[in-house]
Amino acid sequence: MSVGSEGRIPVAVLGATGAVGQTFIRLLEGHPFLEVSELAASERSAGRLYREAMSWHEGKLPEHLMDLTVLPCDPGAVKSKVVFSALDSSVAGSVEQAFARAGAVVLSNAKNHRMDADVPLVIPEVNADHLMLIDRQKEARGWEGAIITNSNCAVAPMTMALAPLHAAFGVRQAVMVTLQAISGAGYPGVPSLDILGNVIPHIPGEEEKIEPELNKMLGELEAGQVVNAPIIVSTHCNRVPVQHGHTVCMTLGFESSAGPEEVLEAMSEWQGHSICKGLPSAPSPPLVVRPEVNRPQARKDVDEGAGMAVVVGRVRSDPLMDVSLTAMAHNTVRGAAGGSILNAEVLGRMGRLPGVTEGAW
Amino acid sequence: MSVGSEGRIPVAVLGATGAVGQTFIRLLEGHPFLEVSELAASERSAGRLYREAMSWHEGKLPEHLMDLTVLPCDPGAVKSKVVFSALDSSVAGSVEQAFARAGAVVLSNAKNHRMDADVPLVIPEVNADHLMLIDRQKEARGWEGAIITNSNCAVAPMTMALAPLHAAFGVRQAVMVTLQAISGAGYPGVPSLDILGNVIPHIPGEEEKIEPELNKMLGELEAGQVVNAPIIVSTHCNRVPVQHGHTVCMTLGFESSAGPEEVLEAMSEWQGHSICKGLPSAPSPPLVVRPEVNRPQARKDVDEGAGMAVVVGRVRSDPLMDVSLTAMAHNTVRGAAGGSILNAEVLGRMGRLPGVTEGAW
Amino acid sequence: MSVGSEGRIPVAVLGATGAVGQTFIRLLEGHPFLEVSELAASERSAGRLYREAMSWHEGKLPEHLMDLTVLPCDPGAVKSKVVFSALDSSVAGSVEQAFARAGAVVLSNAKNHRMDADVPLVIPEVNADHLMLIDRQKEARGWEGAIITNSNCAVAPMTMALAPLHAAFGVRQAVMVTLQAISGAGYPGVPSLDILGNVIPHIPGEEEKIEPELNKMLGELEAGQVVNAPIIVSTHCNRVPVQHGHTVCMTLGFESSAGPEEVLEAMSEWQGHSICKGLPSAPSPPLVVRPEVNRPQARKDVDEGAGMAVVVGRVRSDPLMDVSLTAMAHNTVRGAAGGSILNAEVLGRMGRLPGVTEGAW
Amino acid sequence: MSVGSEGRIPVAVLGATGAVGQTFIRLLEGHPFLEVSELAASERSAGRLYREAMSWHEGKLPEHLMDLTVLPCDPGAVKSKVVFSALDSSVAGSVEQAFARAGAVVLSNAKNHRMDADVPLVIPEVNADHLMLIDRQKEARGWEGAIITNSNCAVAPMTMALAPLHAAFGVRQAVMVTLQAISGAGYPGVPSLDILGNVIPHIPGEEEKIEPELNKMLGELEAGQVVNAPIIVSTHCNRVPVQHGHTVCMTLGFESSAGPEEVLEAMSEWQGHSICKGLPSAPSPPLVVRPEVNRPQARKDVDEGAGMAVVVGRVRSDPLMDVSLTAMAHNTVRGAAGGSILNAEVLGRMGRLPGVTEGAW
Fold first, then answer.
1. Which of A85, B130, B207, D247 lies 20 to 30 angstroms, CA to CA, from A177?
2. Alpha-carbon dihedral A130, A136, A141, A145, rounded to 10 degrees
3. What CATH number corresponds to the domain at position D80?
4. Sign of CA dihedral C288, C289, C294, C296
């Protein structure tokens, strides 16, 4: 296969013109192992220069990609064997399958395949071992490639905050109330007339994803299958006038009794799965516990760990269940593009990316 | 006693220069029964014209009050026997007592006396009968006047939303997560650098008030004492960049089984205590149930019922408890000044305001 | 012709589902002379109930209109002879002509015909006499009806603030820098990701309208034609995260020397054209001059005169020209729907609306 | 004198607990030549640990400074001979003089001495040569040290945008309308109730500074004195709900005729004074000209050049003067702490900082 400059693996971004696609590009700029070499998008954009196909962008995009011709989202046109998918769910399902069938490892941010039994849904600090599902997936589907997904952006901070607690105390039930940033809705996304100085107490399709995705990621891999965790989750999802950073207020009940001190200790000590250690996108530590009474705050803490850490605070005793706390994470980095990139890094280290030798990273 | 113009009862506002004080004045402008005739404030302001004592104001204040001389918060200087207190809690305790001792009926928005056993804490649609506590208060304290309080601004929508549900199904437990407007912190209040494009996951002193105030108001008056309701309440209080309107995400567990349909029916039919009927500040209905999936919204619904209604939406089944819903109310109207004014109106109708005959209103 | 309830004139709103269309409906609710009896919109909406054709609305709309069937924007389907047009400029041109040809008086908020020599562009306090252009228009075009336009939303506060100054001192040149609210872009309009915590220093198509519209309205009607005013205008249009209310910073140079005192006097005394006096939508006074150093402010002053007044402040001497000041007006009321309605009221009083006798209003 | 670690010059920050003081500390973290070794603040803070003396902070501050004991703002207590002053103007005047008298080079962000004839007011890309005023200052005042000031935060983008234009065409007159970020007011600064969803058309004391500071910096040094530029400047200063980044809409008239092309060329080619070249805080280029019609935008462009560049856009012909454009700069970096630091770097390169050899940097 072709090799990127300086030995980096060439990758493609599908859905490159949208908000998440652009985030992939920004985060991959300067990546030590991966190099964006192809950009693909919808029919409307294909064939145009990337610079012209984007009607909008946030922040700076690498000048050297601006004059790439946008490719169609078609494995016949895209040569990279490592593909990041920022596709809209209206098209992601079949396009991602076509790429996997054609031999690509597809790291997808789309919801379409997350709950497929043979598709790993992974936050690698939490469940890197689930990546082994791709063996079953390849076999069952007869694919040379595979699809690996990351979670919904609001589920990411929940899963990471709960991982050490579920391991230590068994999380039995949770009330999760989110205050989600506008960037979670993409671009153009939320009209300013709807959200300026306002709260919208509903996000279409969001609450339904939380319990299943959380329980899949916190589940155990047994005999090549994920046995979901049994946490009962009550959810309220709210949109708030914040640019980046989803805040989650959690009230948690455990199987075995634990109070704030035990929870703080479990969180502070948690390092996540050791395979992530030292990878370029792996934050260290994955959970940052703040002692202040009024943290985490989206605007102030969102870039913690280069946007990949989950920031936790307000761990306290709860009169109804066991413990209450607040967690926050960057929704387009940890909760979207950054999560996919870290999945790719772990797969590479495992020798499961085309062109990468196990342990080379 | 002196009588205001057109037979209206003259009233004083203590703490008249602050944000809540100004809200009292605005809401009382044009009131059919009550007329602001005295304004009192701290030493710093006393003796100055009201126009000059205020360094800031929101919205328009009545021109005819602007040239009143601000009085000290001293019952020797203030003649009105109906007194609204917008005092800061650092001084409200003793000042309100002094006025009650001197024969005034004090309608207080301050927290100081809310939990005193002989002081009514009242949202009259919910617990107008608790007003009878003033007989015990007067007797126990040897006062001619009395202190009547209204609740914390975030507790108001909780109490009103729960009142019909507690009556019908017995609320056993609740998780209450608030998204509170900046006006709840008064002026200057929250610095813009802290809240613009941000969420602050803590409000000093707020969470502690919720369970006790809610349970006192939902309690039963038995043998002249309030027997508190036994609801276990878990709370998270957040500040959000919204001007007015506190939103509360509630997850509720009942004693007797009830689902969304029963809850919707109970809320839609609820009229509140009949003594409120037709009073100038009483919204009709007190709960406005919206069918849309994304309401209530603070900016769009905050003026429902002239700011005195609680707007409810998203009533749905909950996997963990029984029902989830979202409620919202105007924090400086229903949750502060407007609540005090409605308490005064009810007291007047009961014949418990100096100078007002029972049933005259 | 048919007559509305209580003798009110029935009117239609074209483009009724959009943001400006809804503002027309809200402002006309309870109007003493005019009654919305027909709603028309694009093909996509025609034939549906109004309630269902709107995917979004701001504030409350009258319940009694919700079950009207939306009509197509076709004079064959719409019977009202007084028609308010909130149409998008992509269709307004031909549709408004068709209605005028069919005998309707069309009060248009669209830009299409504003600069036609025989179409009045009117803020009636300023140039009600320009309404006489409709005689020429009818004759020239052979129409029974006519088109009357109101100005761009940012031009409205400029024109009203300058009217008394141009009359008194002759405005020679002006630098106009606007800070415009998001509601000026309609719905969905400005994406929140673009404007939250930001300023956008450009509004497509806006700056080009300012000098010509301002000079047409401040021009003199001579021999049946408008002779434009000769003011040279430099403009910068900015979008800011404000819901309603366009602020304009003005630096003004006059023909005859005048300073802040003269300007303040001219503005304070200005009553506007006498034909507006007492009309339902006419603010009194049309210019509200605030003495505070930090007014007008959009959020605090936008509802002055029920949204129809222009609020002016910071009148001061300018080192470069003569005087600087800041003006602000409600962009969807004074600058759009309210302006059209006031134009209709003036035409009615002049006996120029079908079914209304001169002087009856 | 003492030397910091790795040969870096030790510096003190006066007013270290405030918003600008913290920005100094953040920007100096990791500086190759300068090292914060002393923190000083008001009596209230002196003697406490820095960590405890700050009631608030934005972003992360270096952990290794947190346990420094805050010193009083007294040259007897502060040993560093390079001192950054983030003092409030109520105390800056005498304190800065005391430090200069005691031999320190004081790089001040305060307004107190900016207009003193023998105090340089410097943006070094524009007028590094004015730094020679310190010779006259030392001599006239008999000081071993000196005071060097940087400009008001809104004047910084004006001066940098005008520098190449004034050199090339002679700027004769300018209308400057600012849209200024809330961080310009420090902390707690602007109350959120005043600015959320609003524009405040006035900033106390701001407009008065613009013409004199701009003309001093664009003036020529002749015979050891600054001969001010003669630009007549009309100003409107507005506060907008933006976190960082002051936007300035400029309308400019030149001595010699020039249009947008000439202006664009002059700006694009401008490199600023060569002495800045390669210094750690010097952006390259100092002016970033954006071709898009809707740039610069505060939120998107504020970090250009690590917050030290001025971003310019919308250069166009003006009907009244010559050219209009919009400029934007980071107000707490380029317009405050970063500007002072760059002044220090230039002084160091000139051999005018205690302990630094000319040309060593």
1. A85
2. 60
3. 3.40.50.720
4. positive
Domain co-membership, C162 together with C203: yes
Same domain, C68 and C177: no
Question: Phi-psi region for residue B133, left (φ > 0), alpha (ψ -120 to 50) or beta?
Answer: alpha
- Residues A318, A223 share a domain: yes
> Does any domain span residue C361?
no
Cross-strand bridge partners of residue A323: A252, A317
| Cβ neighbours for D7, distance < 8 A, ≥ 6 positions apart | none
Q: For residues D308 and D302, what is the distance between their CA atoms, to the nearest angstrom?
A: 9
**Domain co-membership, D132 together with D217:** no
What is d(CA B40, CA B95) in angstroms, rounded to the nearest whole number?
Answer: 11
Please report whether residue D358 resides in a domain. Answer: no
Q: Is C276 part of any domain?
A: yes
Q: Are C122 and C208 members of one domain?
A: no
What is the distance between the alpha carbons of residues B114 and B213, in angstroms, rounded to a whole number? 8
| Token pair 């402010």: residue | C297
Is B197 within 8 Å of chain C by CB?
Answer: yes
Measured between CB atoms, does D192 come within 8 Å of chain B?
yes
Q: Which of D54, D60, D302 to mutate to test the interface with A (most CBs of A within 10 A)?
A: D60
The DSSP output letter for B135 is H
Low-confidence ranges of chain A (pLDDT < 50): 1-3
Q: Are A297 and B200 in contact (CB under 8 A)?
A: yes
Q: Do B202 and A249 touch (CB under 8 A)?
A: no
Tell me the two tokens of residue D291.
């071709």
Catalytic residues of C: 153, 246
Yes or no: say if D289 and D268 are a contact pair by the CB < 8 Å rule. yes
Burial letters for B62-99: b for 16+ Cβ neighbours within 10 Å, e otherwise? eeebeebebbbbebeebebbbbbbbbeeebbbebbbbb
Question: What is the pLDDT of chain D when averaged over all its residues?
Answer: 95
Using the Cβ of B194 and the Cβ atoms of chain D, whether some distance falls under 8 Å is answered with: yes
- Report chain B residues whose CB lies below 8 A from the CB of D194: 56, 192
Whether A286 and A249 map to the same domain: the answer is yes
Rounded to whole angstroms, the Cα distance separating D43 from D65 reads 19
H and E: helices and strands count for chain C: 11, 14
pLDDT, tens digit, 9 for 90 and up, residues D42-92: 999 999 999 999 877 766 788 899 999 999 999 999 999 999 999 999 999
As for the ipTM of the complex, it is 0.95
Closest CA to C200 of C235, C236, C238, C243: C238
Residues D66 and D37 in one domain: yes
A183–C193: do the CB atoms touch at under 8 Å? yes
* Whole-angstrom distance, CA of residue D263 vs CA of residue D254: 11
Residues of the domain holding C15: 5-152+337-349
**D64 and D122 co-located in one domain:** yes
| Alpha carbons B156 and B161: distance in angstroms, whole number | 9
Q: What is the pLDDT of residues B162-220, one digit of tens each?
A: 999 999 999 999 999 999 999 999 999 999 999 999 999 999 999 999 999 999 999 99
* Nearest C-alpha in A relative to D299: A59
Rounded CA separation B106/B119 (Å): 11
Question: DSSP secondary-structure letter at B339?
Answer: H
Q: What is the pLDDT of residue D4?
A: 53
Cα nearest neighbour of A184 on chain C: C193
